[in-house]
Amino acid sequence: MDLGIRGKKALVCASSKGLGLGCATALAEAGVELVMNARGAEALEAAAADLRERFGVEVKTVAGDVTTEEGRAELYDVAGTPDILVTNAGGPPPGVWSDWNRDDFIRALDANMLTPIALMTALVPAMMERGWGRVVNITSQSVKAPIPALGLSNAARTGLTGYVAGTSRQVAPSGVTINNLLPGIHATDRAISLDTGVSEQQGISMDDARAQRQATIPARRYGTPAEFGAACAFLCSQHAGFIVGQNILLDGGGTNATI
Could you say which of 63, 102, 158, 200 has the lowest number of CB atoms within 10 Å? Predict the structure, then answer.
C-alpha cells in the first residue's frame, strides 16, 4: 500500500533502537525524511546511516535528552516544522507503591507525560496552519490495564492519554490527528531487561523466563519492532485521517478486555 506520505518530514524520538527505530524504519521505507533523536550518539548515527543507505531518504540526527528544555530546543532547531511527530521515551523503573517518592513521580511525569505534551505544544500549531499533520505517541498497554509493578508508568502515561483525548478533538478540524500506540511486550532491550529480572528473581534461565512470559500472551510470542513500526506508519499515512484520539493496542491479545 502506498501510504501517500513520500516527501513528508518526521521527527521520531528515542529512535536509535527498539520501537522507535521500528517506527523510523517504516516511515523511511514510505519515503519520509527523518529527524532521529536519542541520547546515545553512537547507536543513533549507526541507525541513521543504515536508513539512509537502505531507503535513500534524508536523515538528520540530534543526540540529546529530549526530556530537558535544552534538549528540545536543539531538536526544534534541526527539525523545524515537521509534518509528523512520533513521541517515545523509555519507561520508569518497576517497583511497588511504597518504593516511590515525589521526585520519582516528577521524573516519570517529565519523561512520559510532560515531554510529549511539550513537543505537541511546540510542533502541532504549524501542522494546523498547513492543514495536515500526524502525531503518534508511544505509550503502553498499561493505560488500558494497569501493571502493578509499573505504577510510575501507569500514572504518567495515563495522564498523557487523558490529555490526548481532549486535545486530539480540538486539533482535528485543522487536519491534524493525534493517536496513541499501546505496546505490549516486544522483542527489544526492554524485554531483555524484564526477562533478566524474572530470571534472577526466580532462579530460572532466560529462555524459561521468556517462555513463561510468552505463555501469558494469546499470540504466544513477543511482538517485533517491524510490525509495530508498520502500525505507526499507517497512523501517519494519508489513509488514517479519520482516526482521531484513539488508543490502539499492539499486545498480541495480552490485555484481556472486550473494548
Answer: 102
Given strand 33-38, what is the order of strands in its sheet?
A: 59-63, 33-38, 9-12, 84-87, 133-138, 176-183, 247-250
What local confidence, expressed as pLDDT, does residue 186 receive? 95
pLDDT value, residue 104: 95
- Phi, psi values for residue 159, rounded to 5°: -60, -45
pLDDT at 181: 98
236 CB-near residues (< 8 Å, 6+ apart): 3, 5, 8, 10, 27, 30, 32, 84, 86, 134, 136
Is the distance from CB of 23 to CB of 88 less than 8 angstroms?
yes
Regions of the chain with pLDDT less than 70: none
- According to DSSP, the residues that pair with 36 across neighbouring strands are 12, 61
On whether the pTM is more than 0.85, the answer is: yes
- The pLDDT of residue 193 is 84
> CB–CB of 136/87 below 8 Å?
yes
pLDDT at 149: 86
Question: Which parts of the chain fold into alpha helices (H)?
Answer: 18-29, 41-55, 69-79, 102-109, 115-130, 151-171, 189-202, 206-214, 225-235
| The pLDDT value given to residue 257 | 87
Which of 168, 135, 140, 132 is CA-nearest to residue 244? 168
